[in-house]
């Protein structure tokens, strides 16, 4: 009833949407159009023409073996982010919400890894894993064991996933905690009086009431997994070792900046965007965030 | 001639006054100043010092920014320059050259936001920016300022000419690449320095047995030096410096050495993932015996007494003579047309470049490292490693610029990114080179 | 009475376990921060060789080095101007968009929503060059606006997604009740929605501030004049991004992190239970 009139809708929606149109969508479309040309540089130099190459890049995309590796890794990462990032963040948020003293300390401390730049965290983990004199191998040495190449092709994916997953748990933690603080205390008190255990409260009260927020987190997690870039790039640049740790995000960056195949990089960016829309569409189909409206 | 100049200066005055009228601020004074400049323009021939009293703001860009070893020297020269020419204000935006920076510079040139003077690459690395055709050639500058680049050696100017053969940039220093060896480690295990391939093999085997990394290199990060020297060694300077259309056998043969060396255990166990800096630490800490690197690396070596530079040993069946060296000059100071066509800035820009490229400044920039673009006097403060480097580079039988000076960036980067796969045998060097040349010929 | 004490005791045991779990995780998150601060007091060579030890000789060189070379205070101010305006604009615009998208049903809502989701994944470099050309055309280079506008657009999609998530969870009854009492949509938005959203707005604000503050790429492309540099661009220049001077890098990271932590601690007071509870009751 309240939201029948459509005029306010436009007033609320348009200012933000116009900004996005001008500074995001239009430039992105322009970039896609450019990727039908062989871009020799980011900007067309005056007096220089780019060669039209049509769908060559799409053909390359379908046959590129590294795209396959990146796709597999990115989808693996998606699964891992849902289970570990969102999962751990959910548990931590519930635990922090349930304690009485020191809440603010944990809230502050869990946020640290997000604030510190990926370059610095990447460097820390590089020094953990380093073969000669890295912290892990120093520990092994103290235990009289042979050093291990922590980033050998067989285990590199796991070793890179650990910091990538860990560093963003705090992000979802903060969002979940905010969601939890929106739930009225009264609901829990009423449930406790009815003899509902803390554990049951999580399933019958918290999860249903947090549905919208959890869905937001999962959407952000899967789309985030698709564009995972900075930590892997710092720890194992260019899909090192031997190309096994390529993600769509890192491969796009390598093509665009390291190799300089800008048009191909744009096509990979397009692939990431399309995949993200499809996957988040599936997520909202399954979780139905609007169900309680 | 004189009449021409007068007309030109009048046109310029009109333009200047017109543009100043539209600008806000103290109109009267600036008009006055514009008149001043017009009158001085006319008398340039007789009193050139008078011509430059207008306050000028010069925008400058160099690669001596961030933690670049020459950043301090660059700033010092700028400060001295501003002190001597109080009417010139420098607005300097120097940064260390990385990909983001290059993108930014290219974007500037494309939209007409280029600086007045820029120190930039001279080889194929600059092709983006050169395509905009916004630099003034040295010939054109010399026609008006005969003293321009007077200290710079002709060979250096030639080495710094752009891929189209035109000289636009005035270089300060060049570099060489060579094989750094921890001589104390060689002595400790009774080994000779790797002056030929047999000694190299022997050294690799011995070091390997004694848990010392024979060659510090990051194949994933910076295999560039090895790519260059293996191809040069295999193909000889002539075969190396051509840009072939067909896949050259010699290049492929050189690159196949990566697999041989890897199988021998010459590289660090984590060569696929280690950072170039960390690989360098292995060498500096005496955990590794050899490292192939550029002249800029010498300054950072901690043990200046027991480290030496030797010529790269020719690989078995290689066509290169002993002493074939990779090196050259790859950057220099350019003046943009924008500055050149502005009567006030023209003179200031020329002065600025001259201040950075005269013998005194070049000596500072050189500091005993690499090659100097002027005839500099040897320094008496050189360390044994510095002397070793100088001896190595002056004994070179040939000097070739690296491959990325000749082929497109995209092609070169494809070559580099394929090296790990070549070294494990996952990719045939011939296939990689074919791919690279296809991109280059695109 | 006995029943109550029993219940209290049980809670305290489980509470101890909870505290242990939380502290274990806290150790992993505190570690890198301590590592960075610790290493910022060492010379660079020591960082690579013994980064997990305390400094052998405590040195402030990295800091004096950073402060000597540039005017850091001016850069802090520039950063504050840019990131502050981005944060405020995003908070307002994103709440408005989320409000429109969760409260109204209209044709094309699905399309607008997937457009917003898709823009979450736009890489900065694929949109920056056309925007750069636009800014040059309008002669806005070196002007903070040239960074602020694209950053608002870039952060809007994330903020709108988050705000939509929270708004969906808010019960409609209060808004309906207010409408019955004669409130207009604008009043419902400012009097009910915004106060209720305070915790979520604080969350959006901290992330927007953080991303705007750390978004080097846009800053470097748009701002060329050194005196206009925001702090992260400035410090990046000092310790060139993937540079070798790890000691200087550690001190730069510390200098960059401090303001963000201050903003976070300041904002997180708003993410406190009770604020909303009060709003719902009143």
UniProtKB/TrEMBL annotation, chain A:
InterPro entries: ABC_transporter_permease, MetI-like, MetI-like_sf. CDD domains: TM_PBP2 (cd06261). One of its GO terms (cellular component) is plasma membrane. Keywords: Cell membrane, Membrane, Transmembrane, Transmembrane helix, Transport. It is found in: Cell membrane. Its main location: membrane. One of its GO terms (biological process) is transmembrane transport. Gene3D superfamilies: MetI-like. It is a multi-pass membrane protein. Residues 71-283 form the ABC transmembrane type-1 domain. The chain crosses the membrane at residues 7-25, 77-96, 108-128, 148-175, 202-226, 264-287. It comes from the Bacteria. PROSITE patterns: ABC_TM1. Pfam families: BPD_transp_1. Belongs to the binding-protein-dependent transport system permease family. This is Carbohydrate ABC transporter membrane protein 1 (CUT1 family). It comes from Mobilisporobacter senegalensis.
Automatic annotation (TrEMBL), chain B:
Residues 29-56 are annotated as: Disordered. Residues 1-23 form the signal peptide. Pfam families: SBP_bac_1. It comes from Mobilisporobacter senegalensis. Keywords: Signal. It comes from the Bacteria. Gene3D superfamilies: Periplasmic binding protein-like II. This is Carbohydrate ABC transporter substrate-binding protein (CUT1 family).
UniProtKB/TrEMBL annotation, chain C:
It is a multi-pass membrane protein. The chain crosses the membrane at residues 16-37, 80-102, 114-132, 144-167, 188-213, 246-267. InterPro entries: MetI-like, MetI-like_sf. SUPFAM superfamilies: MetI-like. It is found in: Cell membrane. GO terms for biological process: transmembrane transport. The keyword rRNA processing does not apply. Pfam families: BPD_transp_1. It comes from the Bacteria. Gene3D superfamilies: MetI-like (1.10.3720.10). The keyword Cell division does not apply. Keywords: Cell membrane, Membrane, Transmembrane, Transmembrane helix, Transport. Residues 76-267 form the ABC transmembrane type-1 domain. One of its GO terms (cellular component) is plasma membrane. Belongs to the binding-protein-dependent transport system permease family. This is Raffinose/stachyose/melibiose transport system permease protein. It comes from Mobilisporobacter senegalensis.
